[in-house]
């Protein structure tokens, strides 16, 4: 089954935990801004028909200039919260049945994993990337006292992209807006409506750049791929 997919890239955050004067999507890794690394995951992918980059008002001009010349990519203004920005991105899609929602600050996803997600989307309508949790997790009460220890085999650390039938995720976002619900990710909006969301096992290298320490890990990932000749992560631009 052929699928026509739109991509919404969330790039409207403030990135306060990263610090510094340059927002994380514009920080250079390997001589190229993070946002361009991320965008290159989807450029030229057969199933992707349009890409929406959602950015903050103060970054609109810079983002438009950075992406000038990229066909099929549009930059739009985001909202107050990530959830608002994603909703605006979803509504901006014009002619696709499915959507992948991705964080601009996750530039290390590889093409094989992305294709696995698309295969799951074809069959399941709602699929997200995640990796098994390595550490033991404790659940506590408000005073910091351990309540229980969930079995590790049932715990997954969720990543992006998250992939959905477009009509389903728009409906979930609209219900959340009506009810004033803010989810920790887009999949949670579908879950609260009773829709099944399937996990596709991702990669531990698909990290989100959030703090300065993450930039060290990011440079190491790029250097490792350069050394091993692993060029499966992206399309050349």
Description:
- This protein has 237 residues and is of the alpha/beta class.
- The protein has seven helices and eleven strands.
- It has helices spanning 34-39, 60-66, 82-92, 111-124, 166-179, 187-191, 212-228; strands spanning 5-11, 28-29, 32-33, 48-55, 73-77, 98-103, 126-132, 139-140, 146-148, 156-165, 198-201.
- The strands form three sheets. The chain has a seven-stranded mixed beta sheet, with helices on both faces. A two-stranded antiparallel ribbon has the order 2-3. Strands 8-9 form a two-stranded antiparallel sheet.
- α3 (82-92) packs across α5.
- The two termini are 28 Å apart.
- The mean pLDDT is 92.
Average residue pLDDT: 92
**End-to-end Cα distance:** 28 Å
Q: What is the CA-atom radius of gyration, in angstroms?
A: 18 Å
What best-fitting shape do the alpha-carbon axes yield?
globular
Number of helices: 7
The succession of helices and strands, N to C, reads: EEEHEHEHEHEEEEHHEH
Order of strands across the widest beta sheet?
A: 5-4-1-6-10-7-11
- Major sheet details: 7 strands, mixed
Number of strands: 11
The helix fraction, in percent, is 25-40%
Low-confidence stretches: none
Determine the structural class based on helices, strands and strand pairing: alpha/beta
DSSP strand content = 15-25%
Write the layout of secondary structure elements.
Layout lengths: L4 E7 L16 E2 L2 E2 H6 L8 E8 L4 H7 L6 E5 L4 H11 L5 E6 L7 H14 L1 E7 L6 E2 L5 E3 L7 E10 H14 L7 H5 L6 E4 L10 H17 L9
Parallel strand pairs: 1-4, 1-6, 4-5, 7-11
Antiparallel strand pairs: 2-3, 6-10, 7-10, 8-9
Helix pairs in contact: 3-5
